[in-house]
NAD(P)-binding domain-containing protein (Candida tenuis), 688 residues
Amino acid sequence: MSYILVTGGAGYIGSHTVIELVNHGYKVVIVDNLCNSSYDAVARIEYIVKQHVPFFNVDLRDSDALDKVFKQYDIQGVIHFAALKAVGESTKIPLQYYDNNIGGTISLLNVMKANSVKTVVFSSSATVYGDATRFENMIPIPEHCPNDPTNPYGKTKYMIEQILKDIHTADNQWRSAILRYFNPIGAHPSGLLGEDPLGIPNNLLPYLAQVAIGRRDKLSIFGNDYDSHDGTPIRDYIHVVDLAKGHISALNYLNKLETGEGLFREWNLGTGKGSTVFDVYHAFCKAVGRELPYEVAGRRGGDVLNLTANATRANTELKWEATLSVEDACKDLWKWTTENPFGFNIDNYKWQVFNDDKSDYSNRLHTVSFANGFKVSLANRGALLQSVVKNGTSVVCGFQDPSRYIEKSNPFFGTTVGRVANRIGGAKFELNGNTYQLAANEGANTLHGGFHGYDKQTFFGPVAKQEKNGDKVVNTFLFKYEDKDGNNGFPGDVECVIKYTVDDESVGIEFIGSHLETSPAEATVINLTNHSYFNISGTDSTDGTVVKAITNTQLEVDDSLLPTGKFVPTHTDITKPTKIGPDCAFDYCFVVNEAGSGIDTRSDELKPVLEATHPNTNIKLVAATTDPAFQLYTGTGIDTPGFKPRSGFCVENSRFVNAINVPEWRKQVIVKRGETYGSKAKYTFVDA
Ligand code: NAD
Ligand code: UD1
């Protein structure tokens, strides 16, 4: 399988382009040293495209490391975004700009040559034209406009173009598409990706967005005495998604050349339409819904009246055209800004790689900490809850070593369980006249989704966000896994999203299973839960924990732990405080609502169903759910190094066990194509 290598793919334009590449069927590898970006952008790319995108934290100037990437993947071509790009900064630290941009490109081209990769799409800029108004009839600017960059940044772009030209002259099999961008603006319409400028933004829209969100007082408009309809300068603002698509068109164009045929050619990527600063200001105010403060300041040095593209060459040759407006871009930018007011930076959240191979970012451990010491860690594998620390006490069983999660003896610590939690009797069920035979992984039954259940999957994401309301800080983490038709024998394509909502005393979990419109099956079966083992004793045993539930009704089970269909009381009345231990153990499905539930319970009451305390600590756990049942399992079977029987207990929200095989219960778990399964659970840790 061949790949497109995207340098700078974690950055603003690169991340949007990676999405378009994947959407157009390309496989992508990203190389980025994260000097002006965040890996979170890559995590969000994967979340959006629902595909793994290999990522390498490599500086382009490190030729050896770069070469390893070329050796590991069959690279067909390169889109080269990686560069430093701030005009003002480049005049202060020109050497770093030349070193990074030109040095990085030379290293890249050497590695490409050594690996016989001769196709490159290069991020150039309209800045290579300098002041195009110095000539007559050069506005809108055509590609043949003479170049005269006016700052070190622009000069790096100009020089790289020249290098690519010379390489093509020397070896005419090289294919170089030079894309000269005009003013990229906007963000991904999903609200998940956008520009995340460090420090004070230089560019118009990022600055204006920070004014709107309250991070800056007012916009300074640099001069209103230009010869335009309102006195402010004219630029060609292009939506970043249109720009990203231009790269696909360029790449397709290069790929369609005859075998052995090379090319060196420049294309302007712009809309061909000019907008003034006030035009953009008004469009953004409209998106925000209010007038934003501004003042007119003096002209900014280096600015010129009009830089609008003549994009005819790209329109005709690449068959590419910008279709989105400045208004669209403003709307998308505002969505990105309000949903991510500090970009990817969340002040109480950190992550680390949670794989033995530290260069493999697919499984990461995400830790969120609060001022009161409450701390929660989640991992991509199984979208699992690895740790919760309350008052200095670890209250959830988890492994420090990521490889422990893969061991057979791991009793599902902290993990999401699906597609069907708990047991399916006889490892089979009937649906719409079809019999589905599953793999039996527990005697004759299927337990917790089978051999390749959600606990064994690496979820994409997370999309990590934070909201602050006065002193209250709430963090959310969205993880996604696409469970394809046929996995573990289940019918239908299911997109599973696990949303954690964490504040300074609780962990909420939302379980969302969408049976996709495009699924080949008419209906499927879903029952999702979380398998955390809680321990609020402060020791390695939960013995002596006092639990109290709102129900004492359980599903009666037979010898293979399958429900008989009857509701019966439990051996000990747990609606009264009950001390768990060797003589008082539970592994029962308790019924909160005998009538069962519909498929999506998320808007139902989040009912506290069980509370637990332990005399050793001052911690009370309250477990709540919207589901009609929960499994209370006191961990008799735990047998893994470092943990022993009853080191933790589970309160797993769920539908009734084996519901799919019991006529009166089936509707709790059958999800038709286009429908969404949903439920919520919440674990709150308060001072007792
Ligand atoms: P960006 O800073 O968001 O993205 C550039 C990425 O390259 C970053 O993720 C950065 O970490 C990475 N990078 C930089 N130097 C690197 C190195 N030596 N090794 C590996 N990675 C490195 O910028 P962007 O706005 O997405 O711009 C992308 C490209 O487009 C740049 O080449 C820029 O010059 C060009 N461009 C941008 C604009 C614009 O307005 N944004 C306009 C014209 C051209
Ligand atoms: C700048 C870079 C250009 C780069 C482009 C990328 C310069 C001289 N040029 O272009 O190389 O390719 O960014 O987007 O830096 N404005 C204000 N107030 C502000 C910011 C900007 O009035 O706070 C005005 C500017 O005067 C300009 C317009 O907004 O007329 C756009 O400015 P900006 O976003 O910085 O882009 P350019 O200057 O066009």
